[in-house]
Amino acid sequence: ELPPSEFMQVADSTWLVLSVVSNGREPPGCQATGVTKIARSVIAPLAEHHVSVLMLSTYQTDFILVRERDLPVVIHTLAGEFDIYKEESGECVPVTCDDVSNGFLKPKPPASPTLHPVQSPQTRFCVLTVAPDTLPAIATMLIDVLFYSHSPSWDAATGSQDLDSITFFSFSLIEGYISIVMDAETQKRFPSDLLLTSSTGELWRMVRIGGQPLGFDECGIVAQIAEPLAAADISAYYISTFNFDHALVPEEGIAEVIQLLQQRQESGR
């Protein structure tokens, strides 16, 4: 319904959403949340078969977006470990490898995936939700933050953004559930009794991946971050965008995360 515009670019591919639901057989004591829960079993295998994914972590759960044309490869790759269902008319219907017509596995890419640079801004973030019936009470503030707040200053000499004051605001509305990621200073502008967070009220730090726009074609970007975090059992929320990917980790663990990712960078050279 959006009118054509020279200011809007639309990717050619149509994307499908995968939602990974636990069957309750996770090992006792496994506390990691977010993308780390599915790094080994979903993200890494898809990267090995050259499937590009977009990640969207929300307050409630995590979603993996894959290109519709890659669905046969996705099903063949994951069918050995997961029961796969598709939604038809509101009902979940089992899917098997026989249900796809061109389900031949793609060969693994011959070259190692690019290890993109990572940066960690000093900004502290909150992961929040809000009850849908209270959304009108903060609608004006949301519009102001989304469209009218001042952008951070850029260094004209280097063309880079000051990582001490990075702007990042994410709002998602999925099946009636609202999820918001905002910096701690922006949160102070909202009524505190309407924004809901975890009982610990924890703050998060960001690791931003990419030195230039990543686009949607390259695979293995999410795995670059998710695999080492999963190995260390570190919780993370992950949000892919066209320009950069963003992983949010608990504030107290940011030093360990940076060390892990630096070690991965050095070993990949």
Question: What's the SSE blueprint?
Answer:
Elements: E1 15-19, H1 39-48, E2 53-57, E3 62-67, H2 71-78, E4 84-88, E5 91-95, E6 118-119, E7 124-128, H3 135-148, E8 154-155, E9 160-161, E10 170-174, E11 177-183, H4 184-187, E12 204-209, H5 221-231, E13 237-240, E14 245-250, H6 254-267
Antiparallel strand pairs: 1-3, 2-3, 4-5, 6-12, 7-11, 7-12, 8-9, 10-11, 12-14, 13-14
Helix pairs in contact: 1-2, 1-5, 5-6
Number of beta-strand segments: 14
Share in helix: 10-25%
Fold-level CATH name of the largest domain? VC0802-like
Outline: globular
- What's the story with the biggest beta sheet? 7 strands, antiparallel
Please name the CATH architecture of the largest domain: 2-Layer Sandwich
The CATH superfamily of the largest domain is known as VC0802-like
Distance between the termini: 46 Å
Number of helices: 6
Mean pLDDT: 82
Share of residues in strands: 15-25%
Number of domains: 2
Query: Order of SSEs, N→C?
Result: EHEEHEEEEHEEEEHEHEEH
Give me the Rg, rounded: 19 Å
Low-confidence stretches: 24-31, 153-159
Write structural notes for this entry.
This is Cytosolic arginine sensor for mTORC1 subunit 1. Residues 116-199 form the Cytosolic arginine sensor for mTORC1 subunit 1/2 ACT-like domain. Its main location: cytoplasm. It is found in: Cytoplasm, Cytosol. It holds the Pfam family CASTOR1_ACT-like. The chain has 269 residues and is of the alpha+beta class. It folds into two domains: 15-99, Alpha-Beta Plaits (2-Layer Sandwich); 118-218 and 234-268, VC0802-like (2-Layer Sandwich). The chain has helices at residues 39-48, 71-78, 135-148, 184-187, 221-231, 254-267, and strands spanning 15-19, 53-57, 62-67, 84-88, 91-95, 118-119, 124-128, 154-155, 160-161, 170-174, 177-183, 204-209, 237-240, 245-250. Strands 6, 7, 10, 11, 12, 13 and 14 form a seven-stranded antiparallel sheet that branches. Strands 1-3-2 form a three-stranded antiparallel sheet, covered by helices on one side. Strand 8 and strand 9 (160-161) form a beta hairpin. Helix 1 (39-48) crosses helix 2 and helix 1 runs antiparallel to helix 5 (221-231). The longest helix is centred in the middle third of the chain and has 14 residues, at 135-148. The termini are far apart. 24% of the residues are buried. Mean pLDDT is 82; it is low at 24-31 and 153-159.
